[in-house]
Amino acid sequence: MGKKSQRPEPQGAPAVRRLRAWQILSALLVVGLVVGVLAVGGQSDDAALREADDNPPEMVSVPGGTFWMGRNDGPPDERPAHEVTVSPFRMDATEVTVGQFAAFAKATGYVTVAERAFDAKRYPDAAPEFRKPGSAVFLPVDVDVDEQRGAWWRYVPGASWRHPEGPKCDVKGKKNTPVVQIAWEDADAYAKWAGKRLPTEAEWEWAARGGLDRKPFCWGDAQQGDGGRWYANTYQGRFPAEDTGADGFAGLAPVRTFPPNGYGLYDMSGNAWEWCSDWYDPEYYAVSPKDDPKGPATGPRIEGESQKVRRGGSFLCDDGYCRRYLPSARDKNPTDSGANHTGFRCVKDGK
Ligand SMILES: [Ca+2]
Question: Residues with Cβ < 8 Å from 109, sequence gap 6 or more?
Fold first, then answer.
């Protein structure tokens, strides 16, 4: 499981090594299409670094307090709703951007999981098509979401934060969009370099609620699009075939495009998934301590390995299939798996 067998989408996306034959053929076709342009991708790596923005994300103060975490009318892993007290902390107002991550890569030479050469010791069972550096990319397809779950994901060689959708795509002019194709390991490395850390799941949900008590959305009760108002970058249209971009964006939006929540935090719903420090355990809420919970010591093995929590949903969350842009919604992924909808933001202790 992991980087060589992506499982980037919630709700049952299959591990790549279990893909049906037609999907593998499709993946091989993608390999063929991109091999010819890999050299071009390599040349544009410097272009990604030229987007470097030495201004770190602005941080905002999130007060301490007690709130109801989870909900009792949601999926099983959001139950039971339980009271949690969180100490005050500071949080990046936005998701870490391409420019900010480029500054990190430029300063440290850090190589993300998606960019690393294949490690046969770590992935002894990887199929040949997954032995090139790369990552998972969403591709629109006209399928029944229940019949062919995860058919909209492809492993694309050359996909990385510098080329989020593969070698033909780059980040030129996108320094203010969230960095994506970030595995948990990458987010953790950036946080340490920046003198910060990833938020706990409890901190993240408390922050996302923005001072509201048990509201369904980070902004309150209104539905996306009501009265022509859009509160977050999510997916409209027929998933996964066509994103109409009714909210203004089919794909990532620059940070600060949509209104902030009550704590001045942008994109706590939608745009890009955000990694948390906790291991994912669907039953953790039943045993969670009340004060500053930090998650279980490790998570149960899911398809072979423990996974880390990610929160907030992405531009691919739609109301029919994946309504994971709610403040209570939980998701997880292996520590070495990114995708073109997964990024992060950091926190710091103190007021
Ligand atoms: Ca959108």
Answer: none
Is residue 233, in this structure, part of any structural domain at all? yes
Q: How far is the CA of 139 from the centre of ligand 1 (A)?
A: 15
- Cα–Cα distance for residue pair 337/218, rounded to 1 Å: 27
Separation of 249 CA from ligand 1 center, angstroms? Answer: 4
> What's the DSSP call for residue 70?
S
Displacement of CA 308 from its chain's centroid (Å): 11
CA of 304 to the centre of ligand 1 (A): 33
**Structural domain count, the chain:** 1
pLDDT in tens, 210-256: 999 999 999 999 999 999 999 999 999 999 999 999 999 999 999 99
Compute, in angstroms, the gap from residue 299 CA to the centroid of ligand 1. 32
Does 338 reside within a domain?
yes
Please count the other Cβ atoms lying within 10 Å of the Cβ belonging to residue 218. 27
251-262: average pLDDT: 98
